[in-house]
Amino acid sequence: VWNNCLKIIGESVSEKDFRTWFEPIVPLRLANNVLTIQVPTLYVHEHLENNFVYLLRKAIDSELGPEGRLEYQVVIDKGNEKNRAYVINIPTNKTPQNKDPKVDIHADKYKSPFDLYELEGNGYASYLNPIYNFDNFIEGDCNRLARSAGMAVAQKPGITSFNPLLLYGGVGLGKTHLVQAIGNYIKQHDVGRFVLYVSCEKFTNQFIEAVRNNNMQGFMNFYLQVDVLVLDDVQFLSGKEKTQECFFHIFNHLHQAGKQIIMTTDRSPRELVGFEDRLLSRFKWGLSADLQQPDLETRIAIIQKKLQAEGIAMDIDVIEYIAHSIDTNVRELEGVIVSLMAQASLNRREIDLDLAKRTIQNIVQHVDKEVNIEVIQKRVAEHFGVTVDDLKDKSRKKELVVPRQVAIYFAKEYTDFSLKSIGYHFGGRDHSTVIHAIQSVNDMLKTDKDFKAAVQEIQKSFKTRPNKY
Ligand code: ADP
Ligand code: MG
Fold first, then answer.
1. Which residues does the UniProt record annotate as the domain Chromosomal replication initiator DnaA C-terminal (predicted)?
2. Contact call for residues 403 and 447 (beta carbons, < 8 A)
3. pLDDT tens, residue by residue, 367-393
């Protein structure tokens, strides 16, 4: 049954999500129409419930029918007491909350978009996820302005000049986390306030539904009651004229009434395309702050926080290795940690450097089919008849220097690593050594034909283009 479920799931998620979240799951039993699966950590359970609940529901529906249920079992290793596993069973929500009407398999039942909001005790539904708060949002140079502006807005919604507050940045850099933290903070400090979190995809779907059901009035009335509106991924509205127009009215009305508007986009307002000018100009009324890729120290702090939350200990050299190897975004970083925890828990072994290396290599290689630093080092070493360790060695022997420089050169061309991280992967060299190596290779490429041929031959063996071109 689980294998069939996996097939259904596999059709709808990326290979990477599948490997990270679904592959480590172990089916345990099927009894009384309840399928019990074992997930490696609480975090995985939470993530599955938050992100894939529809898909799981769909798979269970198709395998066990609508009465079928899924139950999770989480094995918790408590630090040193490794042999003692704590098992808890967590039943899934009966029916998924309707986070996204488009993929909601029960969507037909709803007559207006407002049925999509399940009401909370105070009469409102905020759709905030309580796991996101300021405490577990690590501050670094990459997000300092965004975080402090967010905090200011959280403390005085609608009152600061940061209205709207627009946070922008690439995927997985913490936009959703931060805006949800703002919403949660406001809700905690003032239960009477109607805080609403909505992704723009959902907003669009609700709008379409309202038009279809001739219920624009209801739609507008609903949104006009909101005190704090959090709109996630505004770039989704690009090119959707009618939805934008509707949002424009909501925006004006709320803003005039002193209500707080918080938005995220994946790029700066200047780079947004497919938006009406009048809307864009409003985006710029308040404050725009960007979230950037976290630097090394922040990545280390994020990993440590994550591990702490899971109650797992890890050596600092392993943490540093991970932080040096994954510098794209926080989501990736978390994915690697989860994979590692899964591997460690399934194989009943510690997360050591070796396991970290293999897991990262596996994920990076398999998913992106890109050349990674290990592959580069291996190929270059093979070509020059040296070992990978030689490349990381401190020796200045000429027969080692050139291969090392070539490998560094390829690392710069083919990976997104910073100079600092490249240096780390080559025996802890500093970034000026890395710059020097790249320059030397560029010089030799211009002057030395044989050298150029050698470099090209190695390059061919990568069978993929470097990042830059
Ligand atoms: P985005 O919305 O920008 O694509 P998310 O907010 O979904 O990114 O972040 C991706 C993951 O990374 C989330 O699990 C989030 O909790 C985590 N994350 C991002 N930034 C931080 C941070 N500064 N501290 C702790 N966790 C973070
Ligand atoms: Mg997001």
1. 372-441
2. no
3. 444 578 888 999 999 999 999 999 999
